[in-house]
Amino acid sequence: YHRSMAAMQRLGADSDTLTSFQSLKADDLAVSKEVTEENRHGQGSDKLAWFWRINSATNSQKSEWMYEFYRVNWLKAKARYDRWSEELKLVQHEIYWTVCCFRTRIDVEKEVRR
Known about the structure:
By secondary structure, the protein is mostly helical. It contains 4 helices and no strands.
């Protein structure tokens, strides 16, 4: 990438082209935690690396590709939300069942002591 940037500069690429390609940082090249840790907390703050958002295709291709990209990401977020909503309901019920169990044990213990 750095060699290609230097070549574009030497070949006299216009400033619009050069400004659309930013410096690559180690963070830009890191594997998304969404891939390696699908259910991790705090995914809403994830940001796409700049090179996923550059205008590298024709407008029609770009809009179709970006539409598909955002659609897939929205579906992933929706599935994650649905899983966590289900998990919340399960945990709430488990807490209720646990309280009921202890109350029943208390009642049984009281009966035994009589």
